[in-house]
């Protein structure tokens, strides 16, 4: 069962809160990303490097870290802001995750491809100075995303501090927090890479707003053997932002954070014109259509099923997906 669309609850837990904030004076919360390639973090600067992360941890290092290990989504975002991590760990092989489409990770060492598994020896050998992961709504510093337990987290912290980027609120908040971190790690907020991508992000948002005028209703979901999990748009930053732009998400009931589970027999509980299905460890469309109740959904019957890619929280990644989404809202038809 999922806790966040990146994986399944059997392998993960919901995590915590807090927007990363820049501790160093003068960090700018503006600009976007574009054409020039990312370079390794750095160079290291003289004097201490300080950071307060999304769960309130206050970190101080002797100088700006340059050897970074990052969770996949954070790594993609950092690369698109101009910071290239030394290592990546992810819940799956990055080659199998559409979040990495068009992202050059050549030369970056992969130190984990299953949730909770890390090659700590390789991290030690690389001299990792900073580890970056994510944080969801039930996080605290001792319960961070991707780590199986406090013991594993403590083992990694013997190598380097572990910080988290908050994944709650609306996408622009998360993107700004990630950008602030990238700038603190040496990214240039006035670079063509960032300014071009931010402008494109704004343009893609306008395109999505225009497409959303179709009024088509949308549901987003994850599916596995135990049933369907409908995502609640206000609890997912990207969906919350798309809703702010005018997308008509069906209101999902239930008391739990992020998801509402239904059995396969009740898969038609939330009819909509469009269904976005998770591409992360979830049933593909052909398997969804084998479930009779799901096949009765108006969107399913009309063939209006599209991938929910859960792309990284940076301007370039979000702009690319918003344009895809806008295309579906423009070409699909009302069936409810």
From TrEMBL:
Domain of life according to the entry: Bacteria
Signal peptide start-end: 1-29
GO cellular component: outer membrane-bounded periplasmic space
Entry-linked Gene3D superfamilies: Nitrogenase molybdenum iron protein domain (3.40.50.1980)
Domain Fe/B12 periplasmic-binding: 137-305
PROSITE patterns: TAT (PS51318)
Keywords: Signal, Transport
Keyword match DNA repair: no
Main location: other
GO annotation, biological process: iron coordination entity transport
InterPro entries documented for this protein: ABC_transptr_periplasmic_BD (IPR002491), Bact_iron-sidero_bind (IPR051313), TAT_signal (IPR006311)
Presence of the UniProt keyword Transport in the record: yes
Pfam annotation, one family: Peripla_BP_2
Subcellular location: Cell envelope
Record family assignment: Belongs to the bacterial solute-binding protein 8 family.
Protein name: Iron complex transport system substrate-binding protein
Organism in which the protein naturally occurs: Naumannella cuiyingiana
